[in-house]
Each structure stands twice: as structure tokens, then as C-alpha cells.
Write a structure and sequence with these properties.
By secondary structure, the protein is mostly helical. It has a domain of 152 residues. 64% of the residues lie in helices and 5% in strands. It has 41 helices and seven strands. The strands form two sheets. Strands 1, 2, 3, 6 and 7 form a five-stranded mixed sheet that branches. β2 and β3 form a beta hairpin. α1 runs antiparallel to α2, α7 runs antiparallel to α8 and α21 runs antiparallel to α22. The longest helix is centred in the last third of the chain and has 21 residues. The radius of gyration is 34 Å and the shape is elongated. The termini are far apart. It holds the Pfam family FAST_1.
Length: 820
């Protein structure tokens, strides 16, 4: 019963076809619901099978197989079945009579059955596909590209013909699923011009289609990732689909998108926050080793410490059950998130070591790079990795792979570097681009370190190799005639000693030589390069400013931060400086919704460095709603990245307070309202407003919320008149509010009192225990000679202190009751 129930949809489909089909055998093949029925029909009617019958039989076989769970698939038994062998022979004999769709469907099914690429049937199908590829419909072309990718022909001339057919018929493709698939598969062989056309076509289809499936959008984002091109308008459209349909997304897709965003540094906090919440809700899948690896990689870098601890504990238990490839990505995630759990690190390293023979070159390099970022002391694993990489290096002839393994060997080399390895590196240098040359140079510099040189005594060999790399690098830069190509090669090499020592001057000179090629598309990244080079290049900066002003509305608002940062960082004013900044600011203010919270902070800080303080932007940042969003977003960031954004926010706040005191925002209207209240009550308690001060900076640059001075009898001492200056400048201490005090003017026996108002973030969430940073500040203030009074916000805002008298009595008890 269940068997026929499963076959019902196929039966209904065949019933609809019977009205137009006069071929009973074809109808029977379509209605088969297991491979044995198909093989039985093939065996009985072998001599009568037409090209339609053969194509239908192979296709139906695949449709049946793909519905089975992966654990029950046995392609080897299927391939060895006599009737399947007969089908293959019949298909090979009838290839020239197949329609285009049947040809590609047959090729696809045969490949999915794991028939070897060198099999004669596969080869004949490919040859016929080569002849017809320019006549394929878009859907057939897409499926053909998938076939080529699956048999490692993704960079072959045949895939080039597919890309050419795609270019010819691009405007006739109206299906985003087909387009996204072709974008992904043909990427390795597409030109920069075709890539731009594909992006424009994808953007157009996303604008004009109401319903788009997330898998197609995910492939578009992957295409941009492979291009190393963060084209913001298209990414924004893709992100909108992800946010809208996040509840429909599978766990796998959610994890893939989260990983892509992280690798692309595309910070769209709304999706990341939603993805984080969704992944936390499916914690029942964490016990499944198959899913756990993907969830760990997506969630661990943006999880709270409590969640991280739980993930680490679960990973220790499941490590032995996780696939060996997934272990590599888990190790990379641990390195990225700065995992310090020694038990977990040792467990993952042991599991990887047990499977070391299963890893190819790429994964050995990934393992090495990750291990160098973790506190791992498994020297046997290091030695095994070095041995395998050295062996692979001797037989490798692909420059990019040689470079990749060179970098990994330089990170873990424990003993002598093999002469064959050095010879191999020397041989690929002329074939390398700037990024690869940079990697080789930094690897050689590591080998030149004194400790290693003394052990290997090969410094002359390394120096000659470094000189050769430098010579080729300089020649490549000086001969560059396309600024986009230069920027593309510089994308992943803007760090390292070799770049700083050897190439900066020539990079700036080449940028100046090619400045006529600067456009609004490449201006943002060129600005970033100029800023990283840390050298003034006025002609190029002037050209960037000119192009940006002419095309400011074409540049994505978030990319303008890169442009502005170059001018602010290098403190350079273009010829029409005020007009340039005002146009950029206006475009930014008109599109604030395009900015994730952290980027709004960064662009405001960049403008502050350049002495521009747009009031609307400042007020948008310093309000409770925005800062709540910022906190949520930073919770998804790595710790060091989050800390940098918070520092920028603090620096922005300081700049606004000092340079634009007339701008009233959160600091004045919300937070300072409580501080102002406390300051007034302190004046009532101590005898006047001049007996206390707000926001005083101490030696070592701590900021004290309130300060007062008590003599030896616990009587308050008034501060000196603000208009009276100390005669000795060296004895003056300054506060943030401009007040000052003379460090030698205190009467003997007097005591400085620091009064600190503690916000909720100063305490643990589930207790009234003060967190370590605030405890350390109290300790340091006491060392500096203060008596410290701490006012917890939950006490100050409690129901017991609802009147002025109760607040003043509370302050009296805090300051005078305790023994100074």
C-alpha cells in the first residue's frame, strides 16, 4: 500500500500524459517507482528502446535515487547491474539523436551515479555538448555547467564556451534561479566585463521579481564573495530577502549566509541578530553531529560567553563523531573567535591528527593557519603537517597552491627547509601576482628570523630569494597599466613588512600614473589603499575628490566612509574641500537607513577627525534606541572588533563634547540628567554647588563622576574660584569640564572623595555583584588617594528614594557614615 501511495504523484503525472502519448512503454517507464521495475522493462524491451526510452529510463532512475536517504544509496551496485550497463551502451549509441535537454539530463544523471569522468559515455556526452552548447536554452545551459563543475571541468575551455553562450543570451534570461546557478559555475572563466553585466542583470531581476527563493540569492552572494567585490546595492537587496524569509531558511542555508557575511565583512546586524536567535532556538539539533559543526561555525563567533561555554562542552563530546572536513572549519572558527579552551583545542587536534591522511593540500594549509592562532602545543601534529606539506610541495606545479603551502610551511617549520621546496618557490615567482609575491616575501622573512637562521645557516639563500621576489614585485607594479587590476591584486596584501619596506612608494607612483582611470566604482577602494599606504599623494586624492563629487549619488553611502577616511586620516584637504565634504555628508544623511549601527559610528568618527559634526548624524547616534541596536550588533562581533567600535564611540563622544558643546544629545538630556540631579543634591548636602565638581580627570586619566574634599573633621572644603589660576602650572590637574585644582593646596589631613554612579552594566545580570572593571577602578582610585563612594543605579532609582530628602540622606550616609 505504502509503495503505491508513494508512486501516486508519478501515476497522476503519467495519466495526464497518456492523453497525448501513444507510447505505452514510455508511460510505463515514467510510472516506475523503483529501479528494479525500470531494469525489468529494459530487459524485456531492450531491442525496442528508442532514444526517448533510454533518456526517460536513466532520468527516472535518478529521480528515484535522489529521494532515498543518503545512507541507503548504493551507486556501485546500480552501476554494475547488467541492465544499467545495457542502458549506458544504448545511450552512447543514440547520443546524436538526443534532444538538447535529454542529452544534458542524461549526462547529469550519469555523473550523479558516480560514473567516472573518463568513461566513454561521459566523454561522448561532453563532446556532443561541446558541439551544441551555443544552441542550449538557458535552463539546459545551467544544468550543463553544473555537470562540468561536478567533474572538475570548472576552468576548462568547455566551461569557457558556456560562459560565452551566457554572455550572448544574458538579456534573455528571466529566471533568477537559472542566472544565479550560471553565475556560480562560470565564475572561474568569466571576464571582469561579463561579471559586471551579471551583477547588473541579477540586480535588475531582484528589483522586478516579487518572489525570490533564498537559495538563488545565496548563490548571488557567493558569486560576489568569489569576486572579492562587496557591491553594496546588490548585497542590500539580497540581505532584504534573507531578513524577510529567515523563517523559511534551512539551518544549512542560514549557517552558509552567516559565514559568507563574516568572511566578506558585510555587517548587516539585523540578519545576524535574527540568525543568532534562530540558531539558539534550534538547540535540539546540537546533539546531532551532522548539524552541530555548521551551527558551531555560524554561532560561536557571535555567541555570549555562556553560549560559547555550552558549545565548547558539546563539541568536546561530539568531536569524534564529526566528519573530518567539518573539523577543519570548526578549528578555523575557534581560531577566529580566539578560543582559549585547552581541553577542546587538544580534543580537536587529536581528532584531526587521527584523520590526517584524509586531508588534501588545501585542508592541511587551513589546519596549519588555524593552529598558529591557537595555544596549541601538539608538536607531533606540527611535524606531521610539515612532512606532508613538504611532500606535496615537491609534486605541485600550480603557483597559487605552491604559495599557499609556502606560507603554511613558514608558520610551522621546526627543522631545516628542504632545498627542493626553496627551488620550487624560486621557480614559481615569475608566475605570481602581487598578492602571491607578498605571501612568499613574508614567508621568507619568517625564515630569515635570527633563531631559524642560526639553526639552518641559509640566510644567503633566503636573501637571494627575497631579492628576486622584490624585483618581480616592483617590475609588476611599474608595468601595471590598469588601475582596477592593481587594486584587485592589492586586495589581500595591505599588510606585512615586505609591502611597507619595498612597495609603498611604487604603488603610490603607479596610482598617480593611472589616475585618469579613477572612476566612482573604484574610488572607495583606491581611497582605502592610499590610506593604508600612509603616504600623501595629492594628485590621486584630488582626482578621487573630483570623481566623488561628480558621481556622489552613484556611490553607495556606506562606501563613502572609505573615501572620507583617506582625507581625514591623512589630514589632506582637496581643492574644494568644503563642497566635497558637504556633498558627501548630504548623501550620507539622506541614506542613514543604509548604515548598520557600527558603520554609522565609524563614519561619524571619520567626519569628526576632519572637523565636521553633522548635528542630525550626532543625534541619530547618541540616543537610547540607536545605542541599544549598536549593543545588539556588537554582541555578534568578535571581541577585538567590538572593542574597537566602542573605543571609536568613546572618542566620538569626547570630540563632540570638546568641539561642539552646543549640540544637545543623549549625554546632556538623558544620562546627565541623573548626574545633574546628584550634583544639585551634593550641593544641598555639602553647603553649596562649589563644594563638589563633576567629571574630574585624575592622574592616569581616570574620570571621576563627582569629587568633593573633606577636612580632617569631615567638613567640606570649597573649591578655589574658577577664575583664579594656580601660579605653578605643573601642580594643576584638569577635569573634563574645564575645572582645575591645585594638587598642593589641600590642608593637612584632608581627604578627596570620589563619588561614582554605577549604571546597570557595572553589575552582573543575575546579581548585585560589581564587575571586575569597576572593582579595579575603585582599587586604583584608592591607590591614588581617594575615598571612593559607589552609588548603584538600582539603589538610587529604588522606590525607597523617591523624594529629595531621602536622596540627600542616602548621600549623607554614603559619604559621612562610613569611616574615611
Amino acid at each position: 500500500m505504502f509503495r503505491w501511495g508513494r508512486a501516486l504523484p508519478l501515476s497522476l503525472r503519467s495519466f495526464q500524459m497518456r492523453r497525448i502519448s501513444s507510447d505505452p512503454l514510455l508511460d510505463q517507464l515514467i510510472t516506475c517507482n523503483n529501479q528494479f521495475q525500470i531494469f525489468q522493462l529494459v530487459g524485456i524491451h531492450k531491442s525496442k528502446l528508442s532514444v526517448q526510452h533510454v533518456g526517460c529510463a536513466i532520468n527516472t532512475l535518478w529521480e528515484i535515487q535522489k529521494e532515498k536517504p543518503s545512507t541507503s544509496l548504493n551507486f556501485e551496485a546500480l552501476r554494475n547491474h547488467p541492465e544499467f550497463i545495457a542502458l549506458r551502451i544504448l545511450a552512447e549509441n543514440k547520443i546524436e539523436f538526443m534532444s538538447n535537454s535529454t542529452l544534458v539530463d542524461t549526462l547529469y544523471a550519469v555523473i550523479r551515479f558516480n560514473v567516472e569522468p573518463h568513461d566513454s559515455l561521459v566523454q561522448q556526452l561532453l563532446v556532443e555538448g561541446w558541439r551544441r552548447v551555443e544552441r542550449f536554452e538557458s535552463e539546459t545551459l545551467s544544468k550543463f555547467s553544473v555537470c562540468l563543475d561536478k567533474i572538475d571541468l570548472g576552468t576548462s575551455p568547455l566551461m569557457g564556451k558556456v560562459a560565452n553562450a551566457l554572455s550572448t543570451n544574458l538579456d534573455n534570461i528571466h529566471n533568477i534561479r537559472i542566472l544565479s546557478s550560471l553565475m556560480m559555475k562560470t565564475f572561474p572563466v568569466t571576464s571582469a566585463k561579463l561579471q559586471q553585466r551579471l551583477i547588473q542583470r541579477a540586480e535588475s531581476l531582484l528589483e522586478n521579481i516579487d518572489h525570490v527563493d533564498v537559495h538563488s540569492v545565496r548563490r548571488i552572494v557567493q558569486f560576489l564573495f568569489f569576486m572579492k567585490y562587496d557591491y553594496q546595492p546588490l548585497l542590500d537587496k539580497c540581505n532584504h530577502v534573507f531578513v524577510r524569509d529567515i523563517k523559511k531558511m534551512s539551518t544549512d542555508t542560514m549557517c552558509i549566509v552567516t559565514g559568507l557575511y563574516r568572511q566578506m565583512s558585510f555587517k548587516q546586524f539585523e540578519f545576524l541578530v535574527l540568525a543568532k536567535s534562530a540558531l539558539l532556538e534550534i538547540s535540539d539539533l546540537w546533539i546531532n553531529a551532522e548539524h552541530f559543526g555548521k551551527i558551531f561555525c555560524a554561532l560561536f563567533p557571535m555567541a555570549s560567553q555562556e553560549t560559547r561555554n555550552r558549545l565548547e562542552d558539546d563539541l568536546v563530546i561530539l568531536a569524534d563523531k564529526i566528519h573530518h572536513i567539518s573539523l577543519v572549519y570548526i578549528l578555523e572558527t575557534m581560531a577566529e573567535a580566539d578560543c582559549k579552551n585547552p581541553i577542546l583545542i587538544q580534543k580537536i587536534c587529536s581528532a584531526i591528527q587521527e584523520n590526517l591522511d584524509c586531508y588534501q593540500r588545501l585542508y592541511l594549509c587551513k589546519i596549519t593557519d588555524a593552529l598558529m592562532c591557537l595555544p596549541c602545543q601538539n608538536y607531533q601534529l606540527f611535524a606531521d603537517l610539515q612532512k606532508r606539506l613538504t611532500s606535496y610541495m615537491k609534486t605541485c606545479f600550480v603557483p597559487s597552491i605552491v604559495v599557499m603551502m609556502t606560507r603554511s610551511l613558514s608558520l610551522l617549520t621546526l627543522t631545516k627547509v628542504d632545498d627542493v621546496v626553496l627551488t620550487k618557490i624560486d621557480s614559481v615567482v615569475p608566475q605570481c601576482d602581487l598578492s602571491d609575491l607578498n605571501s612568499i616575501a613574508n614567508s621568507v622573512i619568517r625564515w630569515l628570523q635570527p633563531v631559524k637562521v642560526s639553526r639552518q645557516n641559509k640566510s644567503v639563500v633566503y636573501e637571494k630569494l627575497l631579492q628576486k621576489v622584490s624585483r618581480h614585485g616592483l617590475e609588476r607594479i611599474r608595468n601595471m597599466d590598469n588601475i582596477d587590476k592593481l587594486l584587485n591584486e592589492l586586495t589581500y596584501m595591505m599588510t606585512g613588512q615586505w609591502l611597507q619596506d619595498m612597495l609603498i612608494a611604487d604603488i603610490l607612483h603607479t596610482c598617480q600614473r593611472l589616475q585618469h582611470q579613477v572612476t566612482w566604482r573604484n574610488a572607495p577602494f583606491l581611497s582605502l589603499v592610499i590610506s593604508y599606504c600612509n603616504g600623501l599623494c595629492p594628485p590621486v586624492l584630488d582626482r578621487i575628490a573630483e570623481v566623488s563629487m561628480e558621481n556622489v549619488t552613484k556611490i553607495h553611502p556606506t562606501d563613502l566612509n572609505r573615501v572620507l577616511y583617506a582625507f581625514a586620516n591623512l589630514n589632506y584637504d582637496p581643492p574644494r574641500e568644503e563642497e566635497f565634504f558637504n556633498m558627501c555628508i548630504q548623501h550620507i544623511l539622506s541614506n542613514l537607513n543604509s548604515f548598520p549601527p557600527h558603520l554609522m559610528v565609524l563614519v561619524a568618527f571619520t567626519l569628526a577627525v576632519a572637523q565636521y559634526f553633522p548635528e542630525d548624524l550626532i543625534k541619530s547616534i547618541f540616543n537610547v534606541g540607536f545605542l541599544t541596536k549598536l549593543d545588539s550588533e556588537l554582541d555578534t562581533f568578535p571581541t577585538d572588533r567590538s572593542a574597537k567600535i566602542r573605543i571609536r564611540l568613546m572618542q566620538l563622544n569626547r570630540a563632540v563634547c570638546l568641539e561642539c558643546p552646543n549640540i544637545k544629545y543623549l549625554d546632556a538630556s538623558n544620562k546627565r540628567s541623573i548626574y545633574h540631579q546628584i550634583h544639585i543634591f551634593l550641593g544641598d548636602l555639602l553647603g553649596g554647588i562649589n563644594y563638589s565638581k563633576m567629571f574630574v580627570t585624575t592622574p592616569y586619566y581616570y574620570t571621576v563622576d563627582f569629587e568633593c574634599i573633606l577636612n580632617q573633621n569631615k567638613k567640606p572644603i570649597a573649591y578655589m574660584d574658577e577664575n583664579k589660576l594656580s601660579s605653578n602650572v605643573a601642580e594643576v590637574q584638569w577635569g573634563l569640564d574645564g575645572q582645575l585644582w591645585d594638587s598642593k593646596s589641600l590642608p593637612q589631613g584632608s581627604q578627596r572623595v570620589a563619588i561614582e554612579f554605577l549604571n546597570p552594566v557595572a553589575f552582573c545580570r543575575n546579581s548585585s555583584k560589581i564587575k571586575g572593571l569597576n572593582a579595579m577602578k575603585k582599587r586604583h582610585l584608592e591607590i591614588l588617594g581617594y575615598y571612593v563612594v559607589q552609588i548603584p543605579s538600582f539603589e538610587w532609582n529604588s522606590m525607597e528614594l523617591g523624594t529629595k530628602d531621602s536622596w540627600i540622606n542616602y548621600l549623607r550616609k554614603k559619604i559621612f557614615t562610613n569611616e574615611l
